[in-house]
Each structure stands twice: as C-alpha cells, then as structure tokens.
C-alpha cells in the first residue's frame, strides 16, 4: 500500500509505506525542518504540529494497528481502502481511520504558502460554467462550510456522471470518494483544524482558507487528471 504523509504541498518528507508514518513524530521534533511554519500566519505552526503531528498521526497509527490484524484488506491502495471499508454505507471498523488518513493527506495538499487568489484556464472556465461566476462558487463554498452541523468536511468535487463541479459536505470521516466523486479541493471543518488559531470564529478560518491558503495549483492538477476519466467537452468518437 502506498500513501503520502505529506503536508502543505509536499513540503514535508513523505513515507512510501503506511507503517512508516510512525516516523511523523520524529520529523516534527527535528528542529532542522523549517516547514512547520510554512502556512504562517494563516495556519500556525502550533496548529500544524497538533493537527498533522498528533491528530493525523493517531489516525495513521490506529489504521496500522487494525490492518495488522486484517489480511483481507492487505494490498489495497488508500483510495481502495476507503471505498472498500465504507462497505456501501455499512462501514467496517477500519473506515474512520482509513478515510481520515486519506482526507488529511488530501487536505494538506489542498493548501500552499501564498495560496488563495483564483484558478486560471480550464478550471476557472468550468467553475464559471457550473456556478455562474467564481464569486458565486466562493460564496457557496463558504456558506456550505459555515452551515455544516458538527464535524466534517467541505469539498469541491467533479461529479462523474453529471460532468459538473459541485460543492458537497460530508459528516465526520466520510469522503466523497465513496460516492465515486472526484475531489478537487477540501476544507477540514473539524474543530481541531481551526480552534487554536481562530477559536469559534469559523467564518474567519474559512475566509482565510479561501483567500490565503487554498492551492489552485493543486486543484488545476487534479482537474487535469480527472479529465482522463470525465470528458467535459463534446465526446469525439473515433471512426472505425
Ligand atoms: Fe483534521
């Protein structure tokens, strides 16, 4: 099984095997790594050390323990593990940890230093097509985050069959992967993601994410890869 324990657009060294994630705590204690403050002042080093170094690590360690006892799940990719353990809406015990490992990896890679602003080219055109304007999309994403009840996630996803972008919310650990959507951007709305920096001011956290942290570079890369599976234009059928 391969997975990346990367954070903030691959600024942290990565692990090629999920069992290697135990080393995360060592990485965070290494004073030579300047990367823990990469998202300051919008996401503090303290938040990153707690969120990535403790919460994310506990999901990884919990999943490792569960997988050691389960030969049937051996050899799955992380994507497959999330889908298989969701078990069509009757989650197996491994689902929460598997999905939270996947969700957090995706979240770290949805941000970058100097993020915010707006996408360009194809992704911007698709957002304008599906949301009428980039500002409308932004308002919809922020509203979805602020009206989410309890812990969960907000996502920009590409719906495969509808061939359109949508903002969706998920509760607790659920990832839109389980509905076969293709995630483009995510925002962690668990309290541990914002409380140290913003207390209960979720509005500030969400606006800061949209204006200073979100990586449209990552989103455009994901969108380009998604188009290998979803044809957003007129299909060109080869002539036999
Ligand atoms: Fe989180």
Automatic annotation (TrEMBL):
Residues 123-219 form the Manganese/iron superoxide dismutase C-terminal domain. InterPro entries: Mn/Fe_SOD (IPR001189), Mn/Fe_SOD_BS (IPR019833), Mn/Fe_SOD_C (IPR019832), Mn/Fe_SOD_N (IPR019831), Mn/Fe_SOD_N_sf (IPR036324), SOD_C_sf (IPR036314). The keyword Plastid applies. It is found in: Plastid, Chloroplast. Its EC number is 1.15.1.1. It catalyses: 2 superoxide + 2 H(+) = H2O2 + O2. Residues 32-111 form the Manganese/iron superoxide dismutase N-terminal domain. Mn(2+) binds at residues 51, 104, 188, 192. Gene3D superfamilies: Fe,Mn superoxide dismutase (SOD) domain, Iron/manganese superoxide dismutase, C-terminal domain. Keywords: Chloroplast, Iron, Metal-binding, Oxidoreductase, Plastid, Transit peptide. It is an enzyme of class 1 (oxidoreductase). Belongs to the iron/manganese superoxide dismutase family. Destroys radicals which are normally produced within the cells and which are toxic to biological systems. This is Superoxide dismutase. It comes from Camellia sinensis var. sinensis (China tea).
């Amino acid at each position: 099984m391969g997975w990346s324990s990367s954070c903030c657009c691959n600024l942290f060294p990565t692990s090629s095997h999920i069992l290697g994630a135990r080393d995360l705590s060592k990485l965070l204690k290494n004073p030579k790594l300047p990367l823990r403050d990469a998202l300051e002042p919008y996401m503090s080093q303290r938040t990153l050390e707690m969120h990535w170094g403790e919460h994310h690590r506990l999901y990884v360690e919990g999943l490792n323990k569960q997988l050691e006892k389960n030969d049937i799940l051996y050899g799955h990719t992380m994507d497959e593990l999330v889908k298989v353990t969701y078990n069509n809406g009757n989650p197996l015990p491994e689902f929460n940890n598997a999905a939270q490992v996947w969700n957090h990896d995706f979240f770290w890679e949805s941000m970058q230093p100097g993020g915010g602003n707006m996408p360009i080219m194809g992704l911007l055109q698709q957002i304008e097509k599906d949301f009428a304007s980039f500002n409308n999309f932004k308002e919809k994403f922020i509203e979805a985050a602020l009206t989410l009840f309890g812990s969960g996630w907000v996502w920009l996803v590409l719906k495969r069959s509808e061939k359109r972008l949508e903002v969706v919310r998920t509760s607790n650990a659920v990832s839109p992967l389980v509905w076969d959507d293709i995630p483009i951007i995510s925002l962690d709305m668990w309290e541990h993601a914002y409380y140290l920096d913003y207390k209960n001011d979720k509005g500030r956290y969400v606006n800061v994410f949209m204006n200073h942290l979100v990586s449209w570079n990552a989103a455009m890369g994901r969108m380009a890869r998604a188009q290998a599976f979803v044809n957003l234009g007129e299909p060109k059928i080869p002539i036999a």
